[in-house]
Amino acid sequence: MTIQKLKLAVLSAVTLAVLSPWVPAPISVAVASEEATRHVVHLRGGASITGELLRQRTDRVVLDVGFTVLTIPAEEVQRIEPLGGEPEVLEATDLYQVARSRDELAVKENVDRCGASVLQVQTPIGLGSGFVISDDGYVVTAHHVIAGEHKITLTLFQADERELQRVQFEKVRIVATQPEADLALLKIEDLDGRTLPVVPLGDSDGLLQGQSVFSIGSPLGLDRTVSEGIVSLKNRPMGGRLYIQSTTQINSGNSGGPLFNLRGEVVGVNNMKLAAVGVEGMSFAVPSSTLKNFLRNRDAFAFNVRNPNSGFRYHAPPTQ
């Protein structure tokens, strides 16, 4: 082999090594059959449309039906499934969803897939994050974000054709809280005809050490902030409870926000980190297994408006 050919071979090998981490999961384009690219879009009115799925975004779905291309508003879509296959998202309970046959994507693509379901949670004394688990307005956040408060504002960031809009909901009810697990369930009372985008809950028990995870939230009020890391340990015991320890950077304002795997499933609820001189990359999240148990037994943790220690904050009386 000549020196020139050797240089070209080495250069090709180096280029592949550098680019390979950025290449998405392989898909069959040249050999894919027509049926493999066709999907069934089920609409909320009960109808369904079959065609080639060209684009799926948080605000719309673009479908090629053969003689024309349809743009379907996302709020009209109930679910999308491959032709002859199983639906990607299935109802697991009356409240939250789980995913099946969902592909792993890069963080950038996952942000487009599930970022619209993350909200900013604001109270008179602070900020936090939350995420939508049901399209009729149920939201999960951390208990310490809303503890002692009854005035809660949720902000959803919804993209349309040209710009990103902030949609605020001020009629928010506390449904259930579990201070010991640092979890809270909220309900938006007036959706104004909107159907909210939902993220499914994943299996925290199936996490692996070193697995990639990422977070979306509002640290220090900087909304739609994305950070990425790996699972340091999936079952770190602290204070008598188990937490997911990760290197995902979170700060004040991330509390209550989702910790995602690369399938776009919520595997944890961010709630704390270690902060000290010389300490970096030690964040913790409540496992989704704990969250599912809280949601399934939400009646046991129902918020009591008559309890002054549950949801209402009383100021100290004035002193002379």
Short description:
The protein has 5 helices and 20 strands. With 320 residues, the chain is mainly beta. A hairpin with a 2-residue loop joins strand 16 (225-238) and strand 17 (241-246).
Overall description:
The protein is mainly beta. Among the domains are: 37-87, SH3 type barrels, CATH 2.30.30.100; 204-299, Beta Barrel (Thrombin, subunit H), CATH 2.40.10.10. Helix content is 13%, strand content 39%. The protein contains 5 helices and 20 strands. It has helices spanning 3-19, 34-37, 107-114, 143-146, 288-296; strands at residues 38-43, 48-56, 60-64, 69-73, 77-82, 89-91, 97-99, 118-123, 126-134, 138-141, 153-159, 164-169, 172-178, 183-188, 212-217, 225-238, 241-246, 258-260, 266-273, 283-287. The protein has a 7-stranded antiparallel beta sheet. A hairpin with a 4-residue loop joins strand 11 and strand 12. It starts with a helix and ends in a 24-residue tail after the last helix. The relative contact order is 0.13.
Secondary structure layout plus pairing:
Elements: H1 3-19, H2 34-37, E1 38-43, E2 48-56, E3 60-64, E4 69-73, E5 77-82, E6 89-91, E7 97-99, H3 107-114, E8 118-123, E9 126-134, E10 138-141, H4 143-146, E11 153-159, E12 164-169, E13 172-178, E14 183-188, E15 212-217, E16 225-238, E17 241-246, E18 258-260, E19 266-273, E20 283-287, H5 288-296
Antiparallel strand pairs: 1-2, 1-5, 2-3, 3-4, 6-7, 8-9, 8-11, 9-10, 10-14, 11-12, 13-14, 15-16, 15-18, 16-17, 17-20, 18-19, 19-20
Brief descriptors of the model:
5 helices; disordered N terminus; globular; 320 residues; 7-stranded antiparallel beta sheet; Thrombin, subunit H; mainly beta
